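Input/output pair, single chain:
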Amino acid sequence: MTDSEQGGLPDAGAGLGMGAGTQVAGGFGGRGPRLLAGGGRRATAISTVSTVIVIAVIVAIFLAAPGSSQVRHTFFDLRDMGQALTGSVKGTYSVGEALWLNIRMFLAAEVLILILALVLALIRQSTSPVLFPLRLLSTIYVDVFRGVPLILVIYAVGFGLPALRLTVISTQPLAVYGVIALTLSYSAYVSEVYRAGLNSVHRSQVAAARSLGLSQATALRYVILPQAVRNIIPPLLNDFISLQKDTALVGVLGAIEANQAAQIYASTVFNYSSFTVAAILFLILTIPLARFTDRLIDRDRRRRLAGATT
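Output:
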């Protein structure tokens, strides 16, 4: 792409004798969202020293606070953290083992959300007059479940379905009701992500596929959806990071997941270190997924920039 096609603005990096991949020190350019990108050893040393200073200041303020010792005993007691993790205190549950329920709910809800959200998005994208009632219902569905707080959906499903006294529906484990609530709520959000991905595929792609003799369904499956899914992977992963955390809300129904196990321990020994353990375990799960999302965003950004310069 020439300078005239970009509005007549020359490449600032080229004017300074820098290559396209060079990052200006202290700037926001470069190859993407990295904690430390470019600058060499001097930049690494400066970043390390400044990080150590900031952490030292935060720790000093915390230790100098009048109630520091009480907070450390209440939230960061190593003995209580170990007991909460293993569930060695009588009448409590292992926070570590309870986390497995969070993981299972997350995996089950994720699969269901991907399927239901795609169906909703395809219905809302359809133009057939026959599907108008379904488009109307899907629009109402998305509006309702995007507007109602998730905790209220969990209450409605977790206490409402058992109250119906139906043969199969009302006799499921509490975790199943939690997965249903998570699926209902998150499908509304993810369906809009799908719609954004479908709309990002240029109409010329559809026209080209149809000109090759592909049916509407075949073009959707082999041409449109693969491109749309590739565009929406980063926002989808962001939604699933939130989903992993929100599995803790299912504990309000009485299911013994990590947060509920931590609460039982705290109410038994009157120490909140169990919540710190639960928070650390959730961080262990979510931080790798967050960094993977950053990597995908960075790769997608570089791919787009490479395509723009060819």
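Confidence is low (pLDDT under 50) at residues 1-30. The chain is about 70% helix and 0% strand.
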